[in-house]
Amino acid sequence: MATFVTIGYGDQDGYGRTADEVKLAAHAHDAELRQAGVVMGIAGDPVQVRNPEAAGVRTTLGPFLTSVLPVAGFSIIEADTIEEAVDMVSHSPCAVAHGVIEVWPLKH
Fold this sequence. Notes:
Elements: E1 2-9, H1 12-16, H2 20-35, E2 39-42, E3 47-50, E4 58-61, E5 71-79, H3 82-89, H4 93-96, E6 100-105
Antiparallel strand pairs: 1-5, 1-6, 2-5, 3-4
């Protein structure tokens, strides 16, 4: 089994124009994933950490990366293949509410 990190991007505008029954089904799907052991959470405010040459830690509030849509949340998924991981997240709120979910394989 492989491990995947997912990053969901979405905004209130896309969420708001999605049919209520689609949103309800998406949230129910995420609840099933959590029950199955997927670690999932809503993104909070990030802090950038730098320690060049291990000479002293510097922090900056806010994201390093920028995107058209804000980061909405993250999850850690165990799946046999990337295709299976994609299928697992394809019914989540960011995927169905005019956002996007990235699936990143973690290499050990």
